[in-house]
Design a protein that fits this description.
Belongs to the short-chain dehydrogenases/reductases (SDR) family. It is a single chain. This protein is of the alpha/beta class. It has 9 helices and 7 strands; from the N terminus they run E-H-E-H-E-H-E-H-E-H-H-E-H-H-H-E. The chain has a 7-stranded parallel beta sheet with strand order 3-2-1-4-5-6-7, with helices on both faces. Helix 2 links the parallel strand 2 and strand 3. The N terminus is likely disordered.
Length: about 280
């Protein structure tokens, strides 16, 4: 794809999970019950954060997992080891979800090596805080949309021929879509687009038995914030404004993705779950 905008290097994105202190909690909290037995899932941004926790939980519940990530190979390989430790197959694929050709090649590789595709989790995203809208460069604006929403379109387009009745798509939106974020104008705008995309795609695919839902996390301790330009003051109080009074951990969010991906949610499509520390939003 020749018109893909180069990645911005103004910050440390996507960031190494291994560099965080304290470490995010990705470990599944309970034994598996086979809710995804025999399934094959793609999880984007699965090298760290919420994506790693989702991959770990999916594997515990019986799924083979393809781990799509941008460039943090050491983190991605650790996630793959976690999946394999649960007795499941893991496949790591590095590349930019904002590149349509990469998405097509990645899906083809998953189907060729893992045999099929049942679940697509669109989790990868990027953010770049700015105090003033005039500080957002055209390159940054295009890049944020390219990763956060164009990548979802590209992956769904690539996956669609392989998704049969009973398949599930789960997108990651954000509490910023509902509450807004004065310093994350472009990021929150993409999350609004993701929610609208989720609802519309559900209407488009439900007749073929493919469910589409989303999860809207609140402030979660992952590499996205410390490596995405958040200042020390924000990090020192990160998550404290939630009613629960702290940031969430990735393994507190992963069960929402599992629920929407498995047959427990067989009567749900076009919906958004809100693991956000108790913030009340208009869902």
């Amino acid at each position: 794809m020749t018109d893909t905008i180069p990645m911005i290097h103004e910050d440390a994105l996507p960031g190494h999970e291994s560099a965080l202190d304290p470490k995010p909690e990705w470990q599944p909290r309970y034994p598996g019950s086979g809710r995804l037995a025999g399934k094959v899932a793609i999880v984007t941004g699965a090298d760290s954060g919420i994506g790693r926790a989702v991959a770990a939980l999916f594997a515990r519940e019986g799924a083979d997992v393809a781990i799509l990530y941008l460039c943090e190979q050491d983190d991605a390989e650790e996630t793959a080891d976690i999946v394999r430790s649960e007795g499941r197959r893991a496949l790591t694929i590095a590349g930019d979800v904002g590149d349509k050709a990469f998405c097509e090649n990645a899906v083809a590789q998953v189907v060729a090596q893992l045999g099929k595709l049942d679940i697509l989790v669109n989790n990868a995203g990027e953010q770049h805080p700015d105090k003033d809208i005039t500080d957002i460069s055209e390159q940054q604006l295009r890049r944020t949309f390219q990763t956060n929403i164009f990548g979802m379109f590209f992956l769904v387009q690539a996956a669609r021929p392989h998704l049969k009745s009973g398949a599930a798509i789960v997108n990651c939106t954000s509490v910023t879509m509902y509450n807004g974020s004065k310093d994350l104008l472009d990021y929150s705008a993409t999350k609004g687009a993701i929610t609208a995309f989720t609802r519309s795609l559900s209407e488009n695919l439900i007749g073929d038995g493919i469910r589409v839902n989303a999860v809207a996390p609140g402030p979660i301790w992952t590499p996205l914030n410390p490596c995405g330009g958040a200042d020390e003051e924000k990090l020192a109080t990160f998550g404290e404004k939630t009613p629960i009074g702290r940031p969430g951990q990735p393994n507190e969010i992963a069960p929402s993705f599992l629920f929407l991906a498995c047959d427990d949610a067989s009567y749900m499509s076009g919906q958004v779950l809100h693991p956000n520390g108790g913030m009340i939003v208009n869902g």
